[in-house]
Amino acid sequence: MTGWSTAEEVIERLGLKPQTLYAYVSRGRIEARRDADDPRRSLYRTADVVRLEKRRARGRAQAAVAEEAISWGEPVLASAITTIADGKLWYRGQDAATLGETASLEDVARLLWDCGDERFPTQTNTIPAGRPHDRMFQVLAWRAATSPAIRGRKPKALYFEAAALLDLLVDAVAGGSGEGPMHRRLGRAWGCDDTGMDLIRRSFVLLADHELNASTFAARVTASTGASLAACALAGLAALSGPLHGGMAVRVRSFLVESDKSGPHEATAARLSAGTILPGFGHPLYPGGDPRAQALLAAFEPLPEHSALAATVQDITGELPNIDFALTALSEFAHLPEDAPFQIFATARCAGWIAHALEQSRTGILIRPRARYVGVDPGTT
């Protein structure tokens, strides 16, 4: 096999039924793309096929399965909040892209938290001075140090705390206490017009949750100990801050700068030749393209240089823009602050962290995996 294989080759090599192959693709276990020579059929990444073949060869030992599940593998927790199916993102059975047409972050938070039509209480927050990034960590750390644990508290009390926590984070980004819908409060702080505010709203909805990503898993582990909702949100924010997660926008912007300087074709070819990734393109869980990016990019006209890079990458590699590219393109289109992609991402995802923290707390189970020791044999040193 070469770098990409036909369906027939994969089915024969793995001994699958066609429907099983399609299920593997939908769960992100095998990446697929259109065949440039025949758009009616798909090709499948050979490296993914080889990985599955090797796993079958070594059997399904419990330790091996558990280790692989941690890295884009099988689901490791039961959840009724969010799923990725049929190439789409679903919040409690509702299409996130469809919700993005009209819903607000408050609406989606209520849906994810499963709390009906409870209102968000009005509150006044004292926000420290400093950069928005610093303020976000400071307010969550302060609230984590002073808030009671989740366990033993009534659902309604937890809901009001969750609403207050999300409100606090919005004010931390905006730089002061405000009123009205969260997307408009943030938009006013950034000097946006109505179009810009609506794009922030759409981004909030599309980014509110994404199944069991790294930051959400961190929040759930924290919740499993019985810690406060603020502590769970702080754990999520800490994980999100890494360059491979919420910090990806910085790498996308660097790629855009390279494209501006040398041209999109040259910038893409240079990265491919160097064996480096193309930040902002492709997603393991969306072989057919990130629906969040598609929904957001359809709501505005990206700058010509952004459109040119997206078209070039698709032409050369077949990869489509993901949400990191779309959020960066939106930020520059609407003249938002440089760190706006991270701030929008974190604010929106806080709703999901809280939802997962509440769900995990209700199980009463401590998340405690085991390590597969590969060090020096005990007692030999």
TrEMBL record:
<dbReference type="GO" id="GO:0005975">
    <property type="term" value="P:carbohydrate metabolic process"/>
</dbReference>
<keyword id="KW-0808">Transferase</keyword>
<dbReference type="GO" id="GO:0006099">
    <property type="term" value="P:tricarboxylic acid cycle"/>
</dbReference>
<comment type="similarity">
    <text>Belongs to the citrate synthase family.</text>
</comment>
<dbReference type="GO" id="GO:0005829">
    <property type="term" value="C:cytosol"/>
</dbReference>
<comment type="pathway">
    <text>Carbohydrate metabolism; tricarboxylic acid cycle; isocitrate from oxaloacetate: step 1/2.</text>
</comment>
<dbReference type="InterPro" id="IPR009061">
    <property type="entry name" value="DNA-bd_dom_put_sf"/>
</dbReference>
<dbReference type="InterPro" id="IPR002020">
    <property type="entry name" value="Citrate_synthase"/>
</dbReference>
<dbReference type="InterPro" id="IPR016142">
    <property type="entry name" value="Citrate_synth-like_lrg_a-sub"/>
</dbReference>
<dbReference type="InterPro" id="IPR016143">
    <property type="entry name" value="Citrate_synth-like_sm_a-sub"/>
</dbReference>
<dbReference type="GO" id="GO:0036440">
    <property type="term" value="F:citrate synthase activity"/>
</dbReference>
<dbReference type="Pfam" id="PF00285">
    <property type="entry name" value="Citrate_synt"/>
</dbReference>
<dbReference type="InterPro" id="IPR036969">
    <property type="entry name" value="Citrate_synthase_sf"/>
</dbReference>
<protein>
    <recommendedName>
        <fullName>citrate synthase (unknown stereospecificity)</fullName>
        <ecNumber>2.3.3.16</ecNumber>
    </recommendedName>
</protein>
